[in-house]
Amino acid sequence: MCSDVAIVVKNLSKSFHIYDKPRDRLLQMLSCSGRKFYREFLALRDVSFSIEKGETVGIVGRNGSGKSTLLQIICGTLTPSAGEVRTNGRIAALLELGSGFNPDFSGRENVYMNAAVLGLSKEETDARFAEIEAFAEIGDFIDQPVKTYSSGMMVRLAFAVAINVDPQILIVDEALSVGDELFQRKCFARIEAIKASGATILFVSHAGSTVIELCDRAILMDGGDKLAEGAPKSIIGKYQKLLYAPADKVEAIRAAISGDSHREIIETDSPALLMESKVAKDVTPELEEFYDPNLQSQSVLAYESHGVLIESPKILNLAGKVVNCLKRGQTYRYTYQVSFAIGATGVRFGMMIKTLAGVELGGATSAVSLQDAVPYVDKGSTMQVEFAFQCNLNPGTYFLNAGVLGSTGQGETYLHRLLDACLFRVLPTADQTATGVVDFKCVPDFIISTN
To answer: Residue 413's beta-bridge partner residues?
Structure first.
């Protein structure tokens, strides 16, 4: 195994035997005829990938896609039915909530037991115990049996142990969603620190924005298959398209995703656009807004339509002129047309502004709740949607999404959605002192004192 590679997964498959009745398990053990008293469930099917040292890789997929099974095999808590996994480095894992904890042991005893499993001596655990206890923030419960813990307390302690053993490979499942918002921010800050130290991180989450922010690469799993891997923004877009697809379109979308072997042309890969945000200050400023016909989104990703279609997304200035090169501080109107081939109830419209990397910066919906939504839209109707927004972004290139939520009798869902529907540029200014992405109108002030 190459010294630069942390994890290699090769042709990995895992099947489980499903018994309809308890007695079928006994009959299978006693059977000599070759008859099967079980149904075979294939949780993973011929999955292969490799992760280099120092990489942070996200795994996304719908429920039941095989993500947790894959992590358990990599960690060694499950045995594959076929294929192999090789790892290079000490693994610390936070998988299912409280996995590896003895409910009758106290938190303190479980800390020492888990640390020992991860390869720490008692002396090493002694030296780190105060930091583990402080991070978990469970107070006197550290000496109480784990079976008395809430789910939040359990995940706090499990994570505190996992990140304090100096892992070379950190594997994190969706368990962090159990903690409160403050604890989640604390955990992600520590994950960033571990990432900065050069550790390899394998991260599973349903939160697309988290994967985009934390990960260098992403893998899309579905039905036990690895459908795609690549840039987080692209993979999250495909995952969301699959997640909101009508049941009768899922197989076609799966086939399209897994069969798409050519490299997608997306703005995040464009050196010209990426360089643009880095050298904006050095470009001669163009003060007037205008329309650049060459500035077109090449990565538009449309959800499957539920009888509704979004068309003609564009940005208008207050004079009604189409523009895509905007002036900072000015107000613009983002507009798109929505055609309804079916009737829909509880209709809401939305927009979202994102960076080239896919980080969501902000947006709006037309209604906070269903009570404020459009009660009903007739079949054959066309609606013109418009959102006014103030451009408080610093010079750079950005995306706009468009979406329609509503119900056609199957519960609220996206009736249609366009990711990366519009591409626009914020023009540089000669007197720019703002930094980062958003201009918060910060005003510097300082006083010089002399003796």
So the answer is: 406
